[in-house]
What does this fold into?
Amino acid sequence: MMVKRICLLGAVLCSAVMLWAFHSANDPDGWTGAQSDVSDNLPVSDDGIVITDVAAKKERIVENGGTGAYKAVMKEDDGLPAHTIFVPADLKKFNARNPLPVLVWGNGACANSPFEHYKFLNEIASHGYLVIATGYMPEDDERYVGPMSTTQQQIEAIDWVFAQNKKKRSPYYHRLDLKHICVAGMSCGGLQALFNCADPRISSLMICNSGLFKASNAASAVGGMPMPPKSKLNEIHSPVIYILGGERDIAYENGMDDFHLINHVPACVANYPVGHGGTYAQPHGGEFAVVALEWLNWQLKNDQKAGLMFKGDDCGLSKRKGWTIEKNKKFDDLR
It folds into this structure.
């Protein structure tokens, strides 16, 4: 009898060891044998549904999630190919009463990856925004090499936002602010934003280091860029800010010309003398991120304190070192 008990105890111990080994091999973080409720880390919809339809296939933490109150993550989503998403990691803090405004971004050189702008975009997301950039997620700081992005990708991003907000099994269900969507871009990405400016779902535009080419300099444009005529500016129906790199910015002439032609909607142009490259690659996006966030907070979140950066003759930007700002006559209509 004693022998049988010893054999039985040995079999049990052997099985336990084999089970531990199996889980250890399949869980690189180790396995303790304790069960956890996976739903604790999943967003829950307003009606209490635990979200399980999360299609993200890879993600990356940038600069410890940014300096904002909502630590952000950069990720891809199988439901939105050829786009990169920057979003607060904890979506449970957002709902129909506190939704995420949206920024749709086009990259410089119309690159199909935000490899030059991911710090800037991640920083914005960490302040409570869903940011969608055209192109594939950068896995490192290597320069993107591949086909250019298209103007249609920005429209695809907006379509996806609307679809996700009403899809019950989406982590974004009833968490997105469909009334506050800014379309933006840098250089060629700014041209993409201007190409799409007539979309009625857009509530704000942010054109960075960019502007439509004039007939006199159109021949200098890189092949493949969208090239709408200056008359396209008449289709803008929302407030617009141009953020340029001063006279050393190769897009300065085009951007300033755009600004002077826009007189039917509120428009301003902010210049910071750093040239065409801006400050996107600096920690947390540098000065461009500071000004962009104030614009977004004002226009997409109705933050009147943020509006003081732009409103009035003695606005915050006019006193910020290195910056200059010009505003059209319609700009004072903004509240």
